[in-house]
Amino acid sequence: MINTLKSNKPILFDILCAIITAFLFSSFIYLEDLGITIKLINTIFGITSLALLLYISKRAILMSGFLIGPLWFYWVGYSFEYNGVGYLSPVVTLIFAFIYTAFFGILAFTNKVYIRAILLFALSFFEPMDWNWLQIELIFVESYIGVFKYQLALVLLALTLPTYIKSNYKYAPLILIFLAFNFTTPNQKDSPLKIKLVPTDIKQDKKWKSELKYPTINMIYMEITKAINEDYDIVVFPESVFPLYMNHKPMLIEQLLRLSSKITIIAGALLDENGTNYNVTYMFTKGKYAIAKKLVLVPFGEYIPLPNFIKQFVNDTFFAGASDFKTATKPTDFMIDGIKYRNAICYEATCQELYDGDVDFVIASSNNAWFSPSIEPTLQNLLMRYYARKNGVTIYHCANYKGTGIIK
Which domains occur in the chain, in start order? Predict the structure, then answer.
């Protein structure tokens, strides 16, 4: 095992270490985005990236964090274009660079490997600005290593101990890594009901245009009819596939209720309730309907995670007042022919809150067109696999743009 690299190394060496660390820590996302899933490579790259974070110099730690932020989240600012502040996109990318410089920079307070290992493990519990998409265990989601906390702890322990063993067997603790391997698979069931997922590819700058509203509704009717003819039990559409406030359209609701006598329809729309906006899922089944409100909102997309004295200013100035959605107080379960399906809308499908309690099946819907083209749908899919496997859940995910599929 290498000794901790001191900051008196040439800066070019530190830059090289930072680039390699950031690349290895992020590589699984880009390989997956290219359709390449090789568990051995992901295992080696993931373990090596953690080893580097434990042993590289303080300066290299800071630079690697500065690179990891944009490598994972360069796409977040893309959505700002649709709020009329697209010029902020590069600023948002830079903000993520600084956030993760600070995030990983905690490791730079020390050169002691065991303290860095403890801090890195502690960081796996921390979500800066309520943003939880950088899960350290996620680097192993498509590897031979498991995604549970104890498995991350075993890997960090195995990488740390050789520094403190002064004998011919100093590398023997690396065997602990094998104890972090997945030797079992989670018990994930298949839905007893036949579910059809209907992906769409509607550009975000077109989605809310009035001239597309009726063609979109006609497409939905056609897909429902097709699903009925194909003998499906449930047909699922993406988040906000209906570009309207559904509760303002009683005739549309009546038509969907009639169709629901033949098939259960699950589709996203908006809800205006006493002047409050909700991002919701409608379920129409057997002539009745239920509404699931979103539980977890997207930070800086649907709410502003800042103190009240600045929240309204940021919302009005940079989001045109759009980040003002409200939430439900608990997850919503749809009962369909005696089977329970947990509802999840986009971001919340990547949050542990949605998987608490007795959950076997999740029906998730997303609108990924906000971030087209980018790695966002791939990262979202990897995160859903992470939560599905940790919780023994099967996710039926329907998306606009990319990401539709059954996730285990």
Answer: 11-179 (no CATH), 195-295+330-407 (3.60.110.10)
